[in-house]
């Protein structure tokens, strides 16, 4: 099974880096990228990814609000969302997981942890990378 992934981050270099890491895997396909939460919602509807890598702080609509909208759409099988952020904040973790995120990952994590998080989310498992503290 190929895991279809959407990358939502306002930083172009992060999107490109994630796309290169995921695109090198035989079992993953990046189906689109978005630079903000509004575009992420549009891309979810258009491409129906299995997993969305979602940044928290983005213009127009932040990742946590986009996450809630993805899970509130009434879709039969909404994509799993792994929140990826630079902010190691317990409130963000709490809001993300309570909002329906399948995982939470810091951008300082290794590419191996990124891949593990995507695969775990695709298998419908809740996942969180070890904290750096």
UniProtKB/TrEMBL annotation:
Keywords: DNA-binding, Phosphoprotein, Transcription, Transcription regulation
Pfam families: Response_reg
SMART domains according to UniProt: REC
Positions of the Response regulatory domain: 4-122
Residues annotated with 4-aspartylphosphate modification: 55
Record has Translocase as a keyword: no
This protein's name: Response regulatory domain-containing protein
Organism of this sequence: Saccharopolyspora gregorii
Top-level taxonomy: Bacteria, Bacillati, Actinomycetota, Actinomycetes, Pseudonocardiales
């Amino acid at each position: 099974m190929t895991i279809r992934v959407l990358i939502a981050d306002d930083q172009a270099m992060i999107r490109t880096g994630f796309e290169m890491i995921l695109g090198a895997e035989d079992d993953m396909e990046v189906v689109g990228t978005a630079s903000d939460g509004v575009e992420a919602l549009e891309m979810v509807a258009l491409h129906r990814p299995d997993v969305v890598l979602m940044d928290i702080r983005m213009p127009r609509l932040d990742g946590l609000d986009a996450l809630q909208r993805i899970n509130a759409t009434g879709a039969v099988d909404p994509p799993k969302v792994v929140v990826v952020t630079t902010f190691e904040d317990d409130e963000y973790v709490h809001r993300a997981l309570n909002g329906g995120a399948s995982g939470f990952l810091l951008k300082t994590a290794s590419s191996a942890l990124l891949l593990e998080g995507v695969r775990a989310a695709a298998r419908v498992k809740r996942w969180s990378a070890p904290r750096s503290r």
